[in-house]
Design a protein that fits this description.
There is one protein chain. The chain has 316 residues and is of the alpha+beta class. The protein folds into two domains: 146 residues, no CATH class; 124 residues, Sandwich (Immunoglobulin-like), CATH 2.60.40.2560. 52% of the residues lie in helices and 23% in strands. It contains three helices and ten strands, in the order H-H-H-E-E-E-E-E-E-E-E-E-E. The radius of gyration is 64 Å and the shape is rod-shaped.
Length: 316
């Protein structure tokens, strides 16, 4: 049997074909791997985009929820309440808002968030609705209390005005009454007229005659009329006669006194009468124990603490 040998050219051609087949197979493998990696890259990019979008949404939800809590907190803080119960309710609401804010920040920081009744956002929304309802109820109570307080203030103001007006009227009335009383008091003062005073000589036989001689006169008389006064208080009246000698000394033998202008004054004679608001004619007399001096004598008449009239006579 004859052995056949391949030429070098033939062997080289076979080698090149094998290399080409290997390269093609490698290229196919590379293309497959590239396609797979490309598919994975596109999928991962989509996931990353979705995650970014979710982060944006969650961040927006968190910020909106925190802003709502902050706005509601400010609304509660701005409530001007003085009622103890309302103050307690407001403080409790502010405490709950602070707790909600802390829970919300913690939940979003740990990757929570999103909508739905079971999510932090959903729970916060429920609490926010509850707090808003409480705020509106408190605001209504505050407005009602303010209205009632304004009404009370208005009523108090009107009452004070009425009291002030009544007080002013009372003071005016009191002043008028005082003026009228002063006029009545002034009008009630008795008046005397037709005052006559003189000295007399009383002889041992009881006969007497008017005398203007100091050596003979031993009695002083004063006669006058108390005038009618319908305003004066009727009743018993003490009438005092004060006789003053030429030197101004009161001739008083008994040592009795009466009050005049805050001081005690001696009198020469006293008589009790009943005054019935009508004219009263009256005479009073004084008999000195010592001799009368020459000169001008003065007689003064006093009733109810007032000096009502004077008269003089002269002794030679």
């Amino acid at each position: 049997m004859e052995t056949q040998f391949e030429s070098p050219e033939s062997q080289q051609e076979k080698s090149n074909k094998g290399l080409m087949i290997a390269l093609v197979a490698l290229l196919v493998l590379l293309l497959g791997a590239s396609g797979y990696l490309g598919y994975e890259f596109v999928g991962n990019a989509k996931v990353i985009k979705e995650q970014k979008e979710k982060i944006v949404v969650v961040t927006k939800e968190r910020d909106e929820a925190l802003k709502e809590l902050e706005d509601l907190k400010k609304q509660f803080e701005d409530l001007k309440v003085q009622n103890a119960d309302l103050m307690s309710q407001r403080d409790d609401a502010l405490k709950r808002i602070a707790e909600l804010e802390a829970k919300l920040r913690s939940a979003y920081a740990s990757g929570g968030g999103g909508g739905g009744g079971g999510t932090p956002r959903g729970k916060v929304k429920q609490e926010l609705e509850k707090l808003r309802k409480e705020y509106n109820e408190m605001l209504a109570q505050v407005d009602k209390l303010r209205a009632e307080n304004a009404s009370l203030k208005d009523s108090k103001y009107r009452t004070e005005q009425e009291l002030s007006k009544t007080k002013q009227q009372y003071e005016q009335l009191a002043a008028t009454c005082k003026t009228l009383q002063e006029k009545v008091d002034l009008a009630s003062i008795l008046k005397v007229a037709e005052i006559k005073s003189f000295a007399s000589e009383v002889k041992k036989n009881g006969k007497e005659k008017v005398s203007d001689k100091a050596s003979k006169a031993n009695k002083v008389e004063c006669c006058f009329k108390i005038l009618e006064n319908l305003v004066a208080e009727p009743g018993d009246k003490e009438v005092f006669l004060v006789v003053k000698n030429p030197s101004g000394k009161v001739l008083a033998e008994g040592g009795g006194t009466f009050e005049y202008m805050g001081s005690q004054m001696g009198y020469s004679a006293k008589k009790m009468i009943y005054y019935s608001n009508k004219n009263v004619d009256l005479c009073m007399e004084f008999s000195p124990k010592s001799k009368l001096d020459k000169g001008t004598y003065k007689c003064e008449i006093y009733i109810d603490g007032f000096m009502l009239g004077t008269s003089t006579f002269n002794l030679k």
